[in-house]
Amino acid sequence: MAKTATASRPSSANRYYPAVFMSTSELFDRDRASQALGMELLEVRPGYARVRMRVTAAMLQGHNTCHGGYVFTLADSTFAFACNSHGYAAVASGCSIEYLRPVLLDELLTAEAVETALVGRSGVYEVSVANQAGEVVALFRGRSRRVNSA
């Protein structure tokens, strides 16, 4: 009986995530969503990231304040850079956000993600989003899951 040969894939890879690790700066360079919103990656180190975004007129909703989805996206992107800062690929397995105050046109938002736990393949991160006056506008909590080995 003839056997059909198939090419095996690295065990740490799947069709969604490559086996080859990307640095956080490479990840940001490929992140068209964050770049389209004008985000700037300010700082990354293991378990930490800081990202900035200015609120534009296109981000305003019917109450003439920033739509919460943009604040969430800033927090989520910052979380992504922090959880991918350890030398392996990680993705969100869950997250939540609390909006604390409205965000206005032209406010400069800075999100800061801090790792609070890293156990096995799972991590927990707290992200605070503040305006240029230092007022916290939102608090985000994210859970990450490592998807392949370094």
- Most strands sheet: 6 strands, antiparallel
Quick check: average pLDDT?
A: 87
Architecture per CATH nomenclature, i.e. the level-2 architecture: Roll
Distance between the termini: 39 Å
- Read across the widest sheet, the strand sequence of neighbours is 1-2-4-5-6-3
**Rg for CA atoms:** 18 Å
Care to describe what's here?
- By secondary structure, the protein is an alpha+beta fold.
- It has one domain: Roll (Thiol Ester Dehydrase, Chain A).
- The protein has three helices and six strands; from the N terminus they run ααββαββββ.
- The protein has a six-stranded antiparallel sheet, covered by helices on one side.
- A hairpin with a 2-residue loop joins strand 4 and strand 5.
- Residues 1-13 have low confidence and may be disordered.
Please give a quick description of this structure.
The protein is α+β, with helices and mostly antiparallel strands and 150 residues long.
Describe the SSE topology.
Blueprint: H1 24-30, H2 32-36, E1 40-45, E2 48-54, H3 68-83, E3 90-99, E4 108-119, E5 122-130, E6 136-146
Antiparallel strand pairs: 1-2, 2-4, 3-6, 4-5, 5-6
Based on the model shown, name its key terms:
single chain; 150 residues; alpha+beta; Thiol Ester Dehydrase, Chain A; 6-stranded antiparallel β-sheet; 3 helices; 6 strands; disordered N terminus
